[in-house]
Design a protein that fits this description.
- By secondary structure, the chain is α/β, with parallel strands linked by helices.
- The chain has a single domain (4-109), classed as 3-Layer(aba) Sandwich (Oxidized Rhodanese, domain 1), CATH 3.40.250.
- It contains 3 helices and 5 strands.
- It has helices at 4-8, 37-53, 84-97, and strands at residues 11-12, 21-25, 56-59, 77-81, 102-109.
- Strands 1-5-4-2-3 form a 5-stranded parallel β-sheet.
- The model has no long low-confidence stretch (mean pLDDT 89).
Length: 110
């Protein structure tokens, strides 16, 4: 269950949650290339580290509110990827609407 403190905080790291599972929106970085190259590379490197060191699943389908298969209900969920206030937030809100403990990840979010 979400606490008031958690609802007020927008971003979390994996260290702040117990055994989080990641949903990576636009996991392959298939986004417009007019982004700042250094920022894009930093986010893609953070996503690569998440893919290597965490349990995760991609979310590349439309609409971004669709919940991917295999997302565990017994673990907190960190959503990351592209774009924070659109697809990432929509995925987080969709997960929360059906009872998941879901947050936006500070790492790997553009």
């Amino acid at each position: 269950m979400l606490t008031k403190e958690i609802e007020l905080k927008r971003y979390y790291t994996a260290d702040e949650l117990d055994n989080p599972f990641f949903v990576v929106v636009h996991a392959e970085g298939n986004v417009p290339t007019n982004l700042n190259p250094q920022l894009y590379d930093r986010v893609m490197n953070e996503i690569a580290a998440i893919k290597q060191g965490q349990d995760w699943t991609p979310m590349n389908d439309w609409p971004p509110s669709k919940i991917p298969e295999g997302v565990p209900r017994d673990r907190p969920i960190l959503v990351c990827g592209f774009y924070d206030y659109v697809c990432v937030q929509e995925q987080r809100d969709s997960l929360r609407s059906v009872g998941y403990e879901a947050y936006i990840s500070r790492q790997g979010t553009f």
